[in-house]
Amino acid sequence: MTSQVRGVQLARLLGQWHALPGRRRSPDYAALAGAVRGLLADGRLPLGVRLPAERELAEALKISRTTVTAAYRELRESGHLASRRGAGSWTMLPGTHRVASTGLWTPLDDRDMIDLGVAALAAPPELLPAARAAAEDLPRYLGGAGYHPTGIIELREAVARAYTDRGLPTSPDQIMVTNGTQHALDLVLRLALAPGGNVLVEAPSYPNALAALAARRARITTHGLAVEEPGWDADLLLGGLRQARPKLAYLIPDFQNPTGHLMSAALRERVVATAHSVGTDLVVDESFVDLPLDGTMLPPPTASFDRHSRVVTIGGMSKPFWGGLRIGWVRASAPQVQRLAAARVGVDMASPVLDQLVAVHLLADAPAIVAARQAQLTAQRDALLAALAQRLPEWRVTVPHGGVTLWAELDGPISSALSRAAEEVGVRLAPGPRFGLDGTLERFLRLPFTLPAADLVEAVGRIAAVRYDLDRGGRSQWREPAVIA
User: Fold this and answer.
1) CA of 271: how far to CAs of 2, 233, 310, 437, 480, in Å?
2) CB contact at 8 A, 225 and 236
3) 3-state DSSP call for residue 115?
4) Which phi and psi (to 5°) does residue 201 adopt?
5) For the chain, which has fewer Cβ within 10 Å, the N-terminal or C-terminal residue?
6) Separation of alpha carbons 152 and 149, rounded Å
7) Residues paired with residue 108 on neighbouring β-strands, in sequence order
8) How confident is the model at residue 34 (pLDDT cuts 50, 70, 90)?
9) Stretch 469-474: mean pLDDT, rounded?
């Protein structure tokens, strides 16, 4: 089903479209068409969405219908709009201009490369003592077969306790341990989404989640996020759920990857209620929930508003602890966990016992470890922001109050070209289109602040140097970039 944006919704997205640079040199219809193209390029207006009728948009914008008619005609001529008599007009991109988000690439072991493609921290000092303690605990498990499809009881109890402490009562029977958050998502999709099923996701979103959905041949509907807070447009998000009625919605409400936005408690409650009313299951990714910065208070977990087992929460230890410790989990109803365990047997049987024991010890020290991580990330974020303000003041960045990434709006649709150029000077980037669908988001770049401050400042200096040399051309072909995480 094609979703539709109403006139008042599109008017709100367009904002001050008539005040765009160059308005005095071009008519209103050209400015309006250019503003719509900008929304498409930024991913705020999804592809395949039906635009309001000309009369409806004219009334919402308080302009003449003739102006809207001319703007729609220009959008059709530029390949950004397709129309059919009696069916309306829907958004598209010219020709075959598409950028796929699937297909991760193998990282190069290049010590001179500053890798800003992976948003993850190095291991904390507490990891080695935790590994030693886990090895001492291991003998009591050696008498059994070692297969625990839902995870060892100590770890499930620790994870359940963490949810309960956040105000979401949880029993160990509601927890399934996985080999990382991505594995958790894959198992949930196997159970809850038939091939070709309809899914709603944010735009931008996590590339590896988009790849997992593509592997299921999902039909994806997107909800575009604004650069500035609050990010989500409640009217459009809830309207998208009601119109598309997707089988599944994948959301990252806690310091969204890559924008860093934090969804309000009120919107969480409305999303859960709307999802229940239209028969949509919610998959809530809490990868960054442990990393609020600046004393930011977290809203209640999204699942705390769930009364009908519509919310499945996934999380893990990659972001607050270490990506090399492949421990994640699913929180769902106990029957759902058992169904996931049955589905898992055909995939990988169980997670390594030793890794789970390491996770138990790390979670026992979580308050101290996370506090140190928060201080580290705050200092690195501020260093990155200062470097960007000094070297690339034309870029617009909303300061995130949690998570590990900045979402920078560039001074032009140059993200992919800039990433190619930066690769040649030893900086690996994750260009905006990797976080969206169909070639949008070329005006954006994700910049994690997980590396030491000195590396971040050096990276910004190199990026700034190549930014102002992009138009000279003659550069060699882009080497294949690394894993984006």
Assistant:
1) 20, 12, 11, 23, 39
2) no
3) strand
4) -135, 160
5) N
6) 8
7) none
8) confident
9) 64
